[in-house]
Design goal:
The protein is of the alpha/beta class. Helix content is 48%, strand content 12%. It has a five-stranded mixed β-sheet with strand order 6-5-4-7-8, with helices on both faces. A hairpin with a 6-residue loop joins β4 and β5. α12 packs across α15 and α14 crosses α15. The longest helix is centred in the middle third of the chain and has 48 residues. The chain is globular, with a radius of gyration of 33 Å.
Length: 714
């Protein structure tokens, strides 16, 4: 691979200095993780953030695949002895996959086609003469008669002409410049059209907006593309791209026809039409739809990743005694007590919706609250959540308790409950009890609990089941890693699942950390990590700065300062005449530090500034402060909603077309992008995030399709 060529292109594409791109790729090649590079190698990258580093990584992978494809193509064409210096140069310096395939198309081994059959019949010289519009002698019939060969299946002049035109049509189809122009023409001027299929005529569905719909394909946003594709997949819609065929044909003719007086002019025009209709347009239509679908999928994956990160970074309630409640009507509500460290203590089922068991349910709740000094009650937002919340709050009010009940997003709790992780944690407990434990823990520390669940099962995506699944998984894993390393992990209490997302660790080493902790007790210092099996110097370099130790002898072990920078902090403290523990948190002393005095070849001002910020507030949790809302006790289901009602809600999902809000009626409402702000909004993520509290007004309700339209109150 011509790495200099690749680096230069990546730098130009991303508008990043070539040296920054080169250093970043070198770090990635040496297995440095994106969070580590962004946090601890700022001097190498000139302060690139995680998104920029991720983009460099993705473009480098793109070019690696592209270069490998070029090698294959060059070898194939060489084998055909058709590789000219000009062709080789055009392949080597091609930077676009689609253009590369267009260049390769004439040389690409093909299955048996009309053109290849015609060549077998000896008609290629005739096709050459027609395609190049060479001077000819004699009439059309005389020329064609020379190619009649009954033994090869050319029985008359019509057979000869038809076969030659098949070759001409394929040759036109193989022309890279024609395909490139048409692809751009279709993308720029084409209309994506959807129609309802006969079986769905006059029937209601979630695809009604697309029963008779068309718009410019270039302007069709990702959510509409994916919605129409899903409608097509479910047999409700049919899709196609429509363009002005005449304009396309005029262009092709302008590239092919050089002599309108040519004896075979009308035949060339027919070959152009055949090539366009049979070979070029179906392929171009597929290319454009694939491009739009890929683009839509990437955007949907990006939306899912943003929502997931916001959910993972939801404010933690912290080390409080919590009663987790998994609501249910028929089987009752499972309640589980969680202590301040997230340990399960006791559970019980209650049946607050059965008249003869309501008092008993109240007694169980009160007993738990008093015996365990419960501070928060965490109620899952699934079936019966609103009714459970009303019951619990009545108990709190009736008994004048200081406890607060909070409804939490239980997305993925059922997946966790049946997972191997949950079975390993609580083999003796019922699946619904595990759910109640998870609901309680995710109020205490959402990140620590949500990492146990397959990210795809946390329902904050947009058409996540319709997109490229390997790419989705890759993006979501990177998102979880980013969130975990952003917050940092307490080494002596973290689960194996949480540790596995720490930079440089992974599943196997995470389990080794847990095993070491069980055998040797709590870690006393970060350096002790080097005693863990398979956690060598490289892994230590990657993970150490993201792990925290509250009770370490070295107070820097409970900060985001990397051990490789401890000596710098020691020098700072020595120069000020104090111990490190007296320097930490002392802004007056810290303000006296002159950073220029501590710049070295390895540690520059960017890293030093990070060190100073960390010394001021070591180990500070970067997440927002925990807060909660109270849903209206009078609004429990869609039937209770009226247009104009003003309610409080929590944003559960942000898409490119708006935000979904839980208002406590078991069905999220949608604030369309046009109703999110009192100003123009191009991207809902700029305005709101998953977990945000909002006030809304009910704009419309469709009880049959369970659709609620909301407007945000400013």
């Amino acid at each position: 691979m011509n790495e200099i060529f690749v680096l230069k292109n990546i730098a130009e594409e991303l508008n990043i200095k070539e040296s920054s791109v080169s250093n970043t790729i070198e770090l990635l090649k040496n297995d440095a993780t994106i969070p580590f590079i962004a946090r601890y190698r700022k001097e190498k990258t000139d302060g690139l953030d995680e998104t920029q580093i991720k983009n460099i990584s993705e473009r480098f992978e793109y070019y690696k695949v592209l270069e490998k494809r070029k090698e294959t193509i060059l070898e194939t064409i060489k084998g055909q002895e058709k590789l000219t210096p000009e062709l080789e140069k055009s392949i080597i310096f091609c930077i676009d996959k689609q253009k590369l395939e267009d260049i390769y198309l004439p040389y690409k081994p093909k299955k048996r086609t009309k053109a290849s059959i015609a060549k077998e019949k000896g008609l290629e010289p005739l096709a050459d003469m027609i395609f190049m519009q060479l001077p000819v002698k004699g009439s059309k019939e005389e020329i064609l008669s020379r190619y009649i060969n009954s033994e090869k299946g050319v029985t008359n002049s019509d057979d000869a002409l038809a076969g030659a035109l098949d070759i001409v049509a394929e040759r036109i189809s193989d022309m890279a410049d024609i395909r490139s122009w048409l692809r751009n023409f279709v993308f720029t001027n084409g209309l994506i059209c959807s129609k309802v299929k006969k079986d769905w005529l006059n029937k209601k569905s979630k695809f009604e907006n697309y029963y008779d719909f068309s718009e410019l394909v270039k302007k069709s946003p990702s959510h509409r593309i994916l919605a129409m594709k899903r409608g097509e997949k479910e047999g409700v819609l049919s899709l196609q791209l429509n363009i002005e065929d005449e304009r396309a044909l005029i262009f092709i003719e302008s590239k092919i026809v050089t002599n309108r007086q040519f004896i075979f002019y009308e035949d060339i025009v027919n070959a152009i039409k055949d090539s366009y209709k049979r070979l070029i347009y179906p392929s171009i239509e597929t290319d454009v739809m694939n491009f739009k679908t890929d683009e839509a999928e990437k955007e949907a994956i990006d939306v899912f990743s943003k929502n997931l990160k916001n959910l993972l970074l939801s404010p933690p309630a912290g080390n409080k005694m919590i009663l987790g409640v998994d609501p249910g009507f028929r089987t009752g509500c499972k309640t589980a007590v969680i202590d301040r460290n997230g340990n399960f203590k006791e559970y019980s089922a209650i049946f607050p919706f059965e008249t003869n068991r309501k008092d008993q349910s109240e007694k169980i709740i009160l007993d738990f609250i008093k015996r365990y000094e419960i501070e928060l009650i965490s109620i899952g937002n699934g079936t019966a959540s609103k009714e459970t919340s009303v019951f619990v709050n009545q108990v709190i009010k009736k008994n004048n308790l200081k406890v607060k009940a909070v409804i939490v997003n239980e997305a993925g709790a059922s997946v966790y409950s049946a997972s191997d992780v949950a079975i390993k944690e609580f083999p003796e407990l019922d699946i619904t009890v595990r759910g109640a434990i998870s609901i309680g823990r995710r109020l205490q520390d959402p990140l620590a609990e949500l990492v146990k669940i397959d990210p795809k099962a946390i329902g904050v995506g947009q058409y996540q089941h319709d997109v490229n699944q390997p790419e989705l998984k890759k993006s979501l894993v990177l998102t979880v890693e980013s969130a975990v390393n952003f917050v940092g992990v307490e080494l002596n209490t973290a689960s194996s699942d949480l540790l596995s997302y720490v930079s440089g660790i992974g599943n196997a080493v995470a389990q080794n950390v847990i095993n070491y902790r069980k055998e040797n007790g709590d870690f006393k210092s970060r350096k002790e990590l080097l005693k863990v099996s398979k956690l060598g110097n490289k892994a230590f370099e990657q993970c150490a700065g993201f792990l925290r130790l509250r009770n370490s002898k070295n107070p820097l072990d409970n900060s985001a300062i990397h051990p490789e920078s401890y000596s710098v902090v020691e020098r700072m403290a020595k120069d000020l005449g104090v111990k490190i523990e007296n320097l930490i948190g002392n802004e007056e002393l810290i303000s006296k530090i002159r950073l220029d005095n501590y710049v070295t070849t390895d540690i520059g001002l960017m890293t030093l500034k990070d060190i100073i910020n960390e010394l001021k507030k070591p180990g500070l949790d970067p997440r927002k402060v925990f807060s909660s809302i109270q849903f209206s006790s009078e609004i429990n289901e869609i039937a209770d909603l009226n247009i104009g009602m003003e309610l409080e809600g929590v944003i559960t999902n942000v898409t490119n077309f708006g935000a979904f809000v839980d208002i406590g009626v078991h069905q999220d409402g949608l604030i369309h992008i046009s109703k999110l702000s009192d100003r123009y909004v191009s991207n809902p993520h700029e305005i709101v995030s998953v977990g945000d509290k909002v006030r809304v007004k009910v704009a419309s309700v469709d009880k049959e399709l369970k659709r609620i339209s909301l407007e945000r109150i400013f």
